[in-house]
């Protein structure tokens, strides 16, 4: 039996979000157009969602075991779990899925808007390739966040706590007044903890989180956790 996670009893001022896997996913139509260019059959959207979260969990476990950070490993695992045969040339062309991460996760926009209406401040801290602000705009999140920090733009990537420090400093919020929400136990939870944030919530639809980790299956459940 998993131990119950600890939930801070006070109301945070700020809720920081990851982007990919938390607010948006790879757009299935855009992904399947990419596959068609390589004579690969289309993949059903539900399978892409499962492949994302299983690959992220596997990648986090690999990194926690001491492996070097290598996003290409996640790409290979994601395609494998999606049932797609991947060549090196195809993986090079895919990269990190640039211009694909703009499919809004169901309930994400509504959750963010609900938090804003409830008086919470919201912002984004993402490991991305310089396109996260544009992707969020395309997905319908334009104008919702006070700040969007992209790791490529600032030169610091999660789990380095420095990227959180940048966001907190710009927003003038102390770490103990902020929560973070993300889909990677290694990058998101690990980075938020290292930065001293009050809580780190894992988006975990497949219930793959380590024992005791504060998590939700759907981002819409987040409002039920916040004081």
Characterization of the model:
The model has no long low-confidence stretch (mean pLDDT 95). The longest helix has 20 residues. This protein is 41% helix and 13% strand. The chain has 2 domains: 136 residues, HAD superfamily/HAD-like (Rossmann fold, 3-Layer(aba) Sandwich); 69 residues. By secondary structure, the protein is an alpha/beta fold.
What's the pLDDT, averaged over the residues?
A: 95
Domains, number: 2
Number of helices: 10
Instruction: Report low-confidence residues grouped into runs of 5 or more.
Output: none
General form: globular
Q: Determine the strand fraction and express it as a percent band.
A: 5-15%
| Rg measurement, Å | 17 Å
Helix content: 40-55%
SSE sequence, one letter per element? EEHHHHEHEHEHHEHEEH
Main sheet: strands, sense, barrel: 6 strands, parallel
Give me the CATH architecture of the largest domain, please: 3-Layer(aba) Sandwich
- How far apart lie the N and C ends? 26 Å
Alpha-beta classification: alpha/beta
Adjacency order of strands in the biggest sheet: 5-4-1-6-7-8
Q: What's the CATH class label of the largest domain?
A: Alpha Beta
The fold-level CATH name of the largest domain is Rossmann fold
Please provide the count of β strands.
Answer: 8
The CATH superfamily of the largest domain bears the name HAD superfamily/HAD-like
